[in-house]
Amino acid sequence: MEIKRRDFLKVAAAGGLTVASNAHPALAREAKGRIKDAVGFLYDSTVCTGCKACVSACKQNNDLPQSSSTPQDPLWDNPLDTDSRTYNIIKLYKDGTGAVKDREKDGHAYIKRQCMHCVDPSCVSACPVSALQKDPKTGIVTYNKSACIGCRYCQLACPFNIPKFEFDKTFPQIRKCQLCDHRIPKGDFAACAQYCPTGATVYGRVEDLLAEAKKRLAYKPGTWQVYPVERLGGPVTTEREVTPYIQKIYGEKDGGGTQNLILAGVPFEKLGLPKLDERPDAQRSETIQHTIYKGMIAPIALLGGLLYVVHKSTKDHK
Amino acid sequence: MSEESKPLGGEILTKPFLFFAGLFGFSLLLILYRYIAGIGAVSNLSDGYPWGLWIAYDVVAGTAIACGGYAMALLVYVMNKGQYHALVRPALLASMFGYTLAGASIMVDIGRYWNAPNLFTPWYANPNSIMFEVAFCVSTYIFILWIEFAPAFLEGISKYKEHLPSFVRNWNVEGLRKTLNKWLFVFIAIGVLLPTMHQSSLGTLMVIAGWKLTPLWQTPFLPLLFLISAITMGYAIVIFESIYASTGFKRPLETPLLSNLSGIMPWLIGLYLVLRVLDVFLRGVIGAAFKFNLYSLMFWIENGLYVTAIVFLLPRESRSSSRKLFLGAFFMLLAGTVYRFDAFMISFNPGDNWSYFPSFAETVITLGMISFELMAYLYIVKKFPVLPAAEHA
Amino acid sequence: MKNKDFKAFSTLVGGVSRRDFLKYCTIMASSMGLPLGAGAQMAEAVVNPKRPPVIWLSAQECTGCTESLLRATHPTLEHLILDLISLDYHETLSTPSGKQAEEARAASIKENKGKFILVVDGAIPVKDNGIYCMIAGKTVLDILKETAKDALAVIAIGSCSSWGGVPSADPNPTGATPVHKVLADAGIKTPVVNIPGCPPNPYNFLSTVLYFVTFKKLPELDDKARPVFAYGRLIHENCERRPHFDAGRFATEFGDDNHRKGYCLYKLGCKGPETFNNCPALLFGDTGAGTWPVGCGHPCFGCSEQEVGFHKPLFSKASLHLVTPPDTYPHTAEAQGKGATITGVAVAAAAAGAAFAAVNKIAGKLGDDDKKK
Predict the structure, then answer these.
(1) Residues 10 to 69 of C: which have CB under 8 A from any A CB?
(2) Is A149 on the interface with B (CB under 8 A)?
(3) Using CB atoms, which chains have 3+ pairs under 8 A with A?
(4) Residues A155 and A26 in one domain
């Protein structure tokens, strides 16, 4: 739903919110654009074999403990979803017999879920103390625990339910994928991509990833094509027979765009990805906020009026 | 103001007081356990439902119910209706406790409470965040409320001076009171501005939840709807509390004053409902109200409660009945509370696979907070000049 | 098996001890997953003087299958296999050749009509009426057709006769065709068993033959006519390197650190995940653990799998389309969070009830007050 600034202001005025803000029309917050050298990965569900190498590599490289969803048998690291000990996870879509891969009916498909590193992240907009920030160079959404107050507004705001909170800890923090930003200075990159044997997850600059994704959508199913493995432009490639794609790059525009992109052979909703507007929620929210509070002009003007009126009234009452 | 208010006096340790104390004590134990074993140990909060009863009731509904002080200040000082002056102080008291307790429950709810000062640290503060705005405003407003209520404390102190320790006796309480009264208008003005800001922002909080808030509630008009309903809830709590206090302490009813006060409410609720319904229609989601699921049911219950409040409060003759006035105020409070529960908990759906219902301990902690509020209220109205002097009524 | 019978047999096969022979039969039985007693039963069947006649045809092949079979090293296997069955025709192994050999084949067919086993290695060229493989002036296509129609069963040994194998690799100049297809096209209904592999593990072949000899029927076959005991599982499922796969540890280049450490070869193009065979369990050459391709550090190239070996690029990654994922994966939507509990609901209901009761009480009182007025 679109809210027009004018309309909102009209109602705001009518509601007695403030008369002053009409005199100082505030600017609607523009949606943020892609950062030129932003990095991310392309996850191709049709290439994924569900081996979970990415999940275990992620745990190793981020020093994450096991997460057991079977408390009666706590031997296994078998989380049901990303959680405070699991930054990424391979989930399964299975219908009926599940016999054929990447088929919607009586088939199955894998989906990798983790932080999408949105172009205009809701969590960054939501965080009251700037604990979540978007790196201006890489576009990675990072978390700073020494700033975080643990209000969990980021969890509420995230359209992908990604930030996870340590509800079981005395001194908890938020946990989420930070695209292995601690590995980048060492010349490495996202462990999930680096350890993916099939090339289902390939790391690279988002611009290049988008180009690669578009190229794949244009491939004719049944033909053999060269797929990069680990990262775009890297030494490792593989040849594989193309299977049909859903003609859409999830994350190209969804929710204002994400830095992690997804291709799949079954509809994205079936894989549990939310249907998102092209307009980011952060923009909606901040437009309202900025309309009211730009430069604090309206509140200050309102306060001035209030001071005058209240002063007058208190005198009257005496 | 001292002429129109005086302490109620009487026994402090009454039966209800002791019951509340017991409940509060139990909740303190649970809160202690929460600080040792983590939030998950006492609550049913989860990664899907990061906010539950504590935010929906203690903070969002709680501060709206505590809007009495704001609503009365708006009426008395901004609209300059001096005749309602007697209602200001009890309203302020309830507001003060409502907000203070909301602040306290936030410290229970947030995970990294030791970092809370970051909210006031310029290099951490994020002005784009609705949460920042709410947290900043609410905490400032708590401070303002205590100052606004300070004259009542100071009057109490100067009256019982001889019973107080010598160092307090030496304070120039009277002088402080006079200075404060001179500058009180500044705090009153800020005290009107801040709730206007954060009661609307409490609504804006949910805008960023996007698809996770069901379409019947997710609208850019959330801030306006929250603000209007907070003001009406403010008036409702003043009426509710006044009648409750009158019957509870066996004092004369203030019906004529309250009935005049309530005259404004049906129109505000009406404005709210028009906006609410128009919004749902214009966004084209009215169909969702006829889906016969939990959401549509809550939609009808919520708005039905608003309509019920109007039915009780609109006819002049019904407003002069203290019973109908009381019920009208009650339904208004209930409607506003249900609306807030809907917007923050019930219609919040992070995916059909997630479920949430407050746990036993979680609810007890909230009830403990309410108990403390009631205990403090009982204590203060008996010891300090808050309620209107009887002859005034 | 009576000792007396065995003595006769032992002299026949040239000095096998009874103990070794029984051991061999037991190994055969156990590799097929048969019960313990089946080994003795097999031994009994093998020494039966009425040995089943076998005719072995070679088409477009490399003799690898025969070579492999000859290297089955349990007690003098070549003697055993040549003597427990009556091998009436085999181009590589027969002593006679030329006319004599062809006569032996014709005689055997005539004599054992409907009773002999036909073994075929090599693909059958069908292009240009099969002129690309001729034996004694006849195309192998014709020889196969005339032999197969009188056979009790056909065993296609090796990937060439099972799927076409090397000769059928793109662009398949001779029209190399698997045996079962040739027979189906010619309307010959003799049952066909495929023992694919390049070469196949000799024990898979021997086990099938012994099973047939013993129980007078073919072992259980899958939809591609392969014996289930040998081809029921993916190599990936029993691979000794599988834990490395699950842990995401892969060799990325031949000779790199991870390769030396024995990590998973998936990234080097191992086709284990799409190839059905029992190599990791049975191994090759009877020389102990690790003697199979993956064990030696080379990725499986899918020799025994149709459309994989000789068809897929050697180092392209295997697809896992054959594996239907188990339900141990988390599904796209898993029930999570903590819902209503009895105590939770009870305390909420009690609180709400108390609030309503209080309001009701006061409203009642007020009603009285109003009436008093």
Answers:
(1) none
(2) yes
(3) B, C
(4) no
A–C: how many Cβ contacts below 8 A?
Answer: 95
Residue A317 included in any domain: no
What angle is formed at CA C319 by the lines to CA C313 and CA C323, rounded to 5 degrees?
A: 145
User: A160-193 burial by CB neighbour count: b if 16+ within 10 A, else e?
Assistant: bbbbbbbbeeeebbbbbbbbbbebeeeeebbbbb
> What is the dihedral sign for C-alpha A229, A233, A236, A239?
positive
Nearest to A139 by CA among A205, A209, A230, A62: A205
DSSP state of C266: G
Q: Tens digits of per-residue pLDDT, C23-57?
A: 766 766 666 666 666 666 666 666 665 677 888 88
Ranges of residues in chain B whose predicted pLDDT is under 70? 1-4, 160-165, 168-169, 390-393
For residues A11-49, one letter each, b for 16 or more C-beta atoms within 10 angstroms of the residue's C-beta and e for the rest, the string is bbeebebbebbeeeebebbebbebbeebbbbbbbbbbbb
Largest CA distance in chain B: 70
According to the model, what pLDDT value does residue A267 have? 94
CATH superfamily of C233-324: Cytochrome-c3 hydrogenase, C-terminal domain (4.10.480.10)
Q: Domain C51-231 falls in which CATH fold?
A: Rossmann fold (3.40.50)
- pTM of the entire structure? 0.80
Which DSSP state fits C272? Answer: G
Q: Is B48 within 8 Å of A161 when comparing Cβ atoms?
A: yes
A–B CB contacts, 8 A cutoff, strictly below:
223
| Partner C contacted by B363 (CB < 8 A) | yes
- Do A124 and A261 belong to one domain? yes
Q: What stretches of C119-270 show up as alpha helix (H) in DSSP?
A: 140-148, 159-163, 179-186, 202-215, 228-231, 235-238, 242-246, 257-260
Domain around A121: 39-271
Contact with chain C for residue B322, Cβ under 8 A: yes
Which structural domains are found in chain B, ordered by start?
Answer: 44-358 (1.20.1630.10)
For residues C153 and C118, what is the distance between their CA atoms, to the nearest angstrom?
6
